[in-house]
C-alpha cells in the first residue's frame, strides 16, 4: 500500500479486520440448545398374556428411555376405574419417563370395576381370581422385556390398594416392595357369602392383633420363609370410604410380618399435613413406612405422593439395589 493516503490505508485495514472479527464472533457464539423431545411412548393393550381366570384387561407402558435391565411397577386402579384412567390420572407415567421403568396396569372387568380382595380364591397363592391374572401379566412382561426380577413393585389406590396388600401377601417372592394408598389389610375384606363388600372392614370395625393379622398374610403362602416385601402405607385421616382405623391395622399387620416393633423407629413431617412413621429402620427404604395425611379423604394419591412412593421403591436411584 506504498504511496496510498492514510485514509486509504485505514479503510483497507478496517475492511480486512472486520470480516475476521465477525468470523471470531460467530465461532464463539453459543448455539441454541435443542428443545427436549416429547415422549412418544404410548400405553398399549396386551392380549393373551397367560392364565386369566377373571378376564382382566392388561395395559403396558414402556417409556422411550427404558433401562437395559428395567424395573417393573404394577399400578392397580380404584373401583369404577381402569388401567388407562390410572395411567392418565396419576404421576407414575412421568416418573417412568424419567427413571426408565416399565408399568403394567391391570383393569378389573366385573361390575363396579373393583378387584376381588374378598373371595377365598383371591386370598391365597395361585388360588384363582384376579391375583392370578395379575401374576400372569408380570410373567409376560418379564419374559419379553429383560425385567430385573428383583425389582418388581406394586402400587394401588383404594380397591387397588387392597389388591396391593393381597399381592404382597400371596406373592412375597415376586415383589420387592409395595405402596398402599387408602387401603385395608390383607384378608380384612374377606367374605364367605359371595359378596365383594365387607362393611365392617370398610368402616374400620375389624381390630386384630399384629400376630393375628400377620398370620393371615403367612397363611396366604404357607411354608414360605424367604424375605418379605417392604410396605409403604398411606391414608387420609378423614377417609369415609375405607375409614382411618384401617391405617393402624395395616401397620400392625406388616410390622408383624417383618418381625419389627409396632413402635416407630422415627417420626417426622416431610411436609405440612404429613406425619410419617418408619418401622424397623429410619432410611428411605425402611421395612415399613406409614404416612398419615391430615384433613384428607379418600382421594389419594395426590401431587408429589407418587414420587415419594418411587423413592421408597428405590426407583429414583436413592439406595435400593437389585439384591434381595
Describe how the helices and strands are arranged.
Elements: H1 6-28, E1 44-46, E2 57-61, E3 72-76, H2 83-89, H3 92-99, E4 102-107, H4 129-145, E5 152-157, H5 159-170, E6 177-181, H6 199-202, H7 210-220, E7 230-236, H8 245-258, E8 266-268, E9 274-279, E10 288-293, H9 305-313
Parallel strand pairs: 3-4, 3-5, 5-6, 6-7, 7-10
Antiparallel strand pairs: 1-2, 2-4, 8-9, 9-10
Helix pairs in contact: 5-7, 7-8
Describe the 3D structure.
It is a single chain. Helix content is 32%, strand content 16%. It has a ten-stranded mixed beta sheet, with helices on both faces. With 324 residues, it is α/β, with parallel strands linked by helices. Residues 1-33 have low confidence and may be disordered. It has helices spanning 6-28, 83-89, 92-99, 129-145, 159-170, 199-202, 210-220, 245-258, 305-313; strands at 44-46, 57-61, 72-76, 102-107, 152-157, 177-181, 230-236, 266-268, 274-279, 288-293.
Brief summary of the model shown:
It contains 9 helices and 10 strands. The protein has 324 residues and is of the alpha/beta class.
Spatial strand sequence of the major β-sheet? 1-2-4-3-5-6-7-10-9-8
Secondary-structure element order, N to C: HEEEHHEHEHEHHEHEEEH
Assembly type: single chain
User: Average pLDDT, to the nearest integer?
Assistant: 90
Q: State the end-to-end distance.
A: 83 Å
* Sequence stretches where pLDDT stays below 50 over 5 or more residues: 1-33
Number of strands: 10
Rg, Cα atoms, Å: 27 Å
The fraction of residues in strands falls at: 15-25%
